[in-house]
Amino acid sequence: MAPRAEVTVRKALNFVMSMGALDLGIDLGTANTLVCVPGKGLVLMEPSVVAIKSGTNPPVVPLNGRAVGYEAKRMIERTPDNIRAIRPLKDGVIADFEITEIMLRYFIKKVQRRSWGVRPRVLVSVPSGITAVEKKAVMNSAIHAGARRVYTVAEPKAGAIGAGLNISEPVGTMIIDIGGGTTEVAVLSLGEIVTLESFGVAGDEMDEAIITYVRDMYGLEIGHRTAEEAKIAIGSAYPLQEEVSYEIRGKDIAAGLPRRLEISSAEIREAISGPIHQIIDAAKSCLDRTPPELASDLINTGITLVGGGAMIPGLAELVAEETGLDVRVADDPITAVARGTAILLERLDEYEDVLSED
User: Fold this and answer.
1) pLDDT in tens, 254-312
2) CATH of domain 203-272
């Protein structure tokens, strides 16, 4: 068969197959998994958590299908010894293949409601810094979870597209994607990443910093959920016009008894200042390695923040102060990467050559 005919047949088959299955764009994050459907937008956002029970196969807690996502997150640090609520991804990559596959299958089944028996095409965003082996593991997990065909795209590309940036022109654009386990700083041009900083300092590190601060300053032991809630409630990267406080509860280390205390937004800001300045230093390093012509473009295009960490009040102002560039937070930054995957799926024929495929 002639090459052109093969392409025509393949496109026709893809069209027929897609009639019975939704294409899914998945932002498979350390903290949350988001799923977008082309033409429909965001259809799922749940914590990347699975509850497992020792001695069972599969090792999922039998809670009427509620052992994945929100219900599983509620169990973190609140389970008996034979049950664990775990996050199967670490620093944006798979740490537990079996549990990741279970989680993906649950989310895909929850979104894919048609019953024609046709499996969906799936586009998964992945950190730019992962290895070929790690990328293959993500693709295999999606295939085993029910995908017909799997593509991957680097998170900065998907995030930039989801934020409305035009990355296909020969003009430099810069994005900082602050997730749960990974931060990626990238300068893009002509649809490719020119300079990149990818590292495991993000939302989780901020939570750990709060835990350490409260323990060292007040002798109070708190869990990750409490730290995250405090960060979301009163965390900031820049001084607030009016500082506020928040009640946290934990266990007194000396007495071993429950205790509560009021902590101020200034203290939370001090606690998370370390990880935040690591992110800013990475942005400066990325700028330092950017070719001069692209760096000069950034005077006009600035920096765009995406990811859950982008919602920390004052972060854009602090990054702008430290870099001297205009900084904006994308609309609905936590969903930007997922929305970018849906846009890529809508234009799959155009982008197919630049995506990784199983």
Assistant:
1) 999 999 999 999 999 999 999 999 999 999 999 999 999 999 999 999 999 999 999 99
2) 3.90.640.10
Going by C-alpha positions, the residue among 224, 212, 219, 221 that lies closest to residue 273 is: 212
Task: Yes or no: say if 268 and 256 are a contact pair by the CB < 8 Å rule.
Answer: no
Strands (E), 256-323: 258-264, 303-306
User: In this predicted structure, what is the pLDDT of residue 133?
Assistant: 87
Q: How far apart are CA 315 and CA 296, in angstroms?
A: 23
Per domain, the residue ranges of the chain are: 49-86, 169-201+275-334, 203-272
The model scores a pTM over 0.85: yes
- Over residues 103-161, the pLDDT tens digits come to 888 888 888 765 455 788 899 999 887 888 888 888 988 898 888 889 999 999 999 99
According to the model, what pLDDT value does residue 297 have? 97
> Do 269 and 236 touch, CB atoms closer than 8 A?
yes
pLDDT score recorded for residue 59? 53
Measured between alpha carbons, how far is 203 from 229 in angstroms, rounded to an integer?
Answer: 12
CATH 3.30.420.40 fits 169-201+275-334, yes or no: yes
What is the DSSP secondary-structure string of 10-61?
A: HHHHHHHHHTTS--EEEEE-SSEEEEEETTTEEEEEEES-EEEETT-SS---
What's the CA gap between 48 and 126, in Å, rounded?
14
Distance CA 21, CA 44 (A): 16
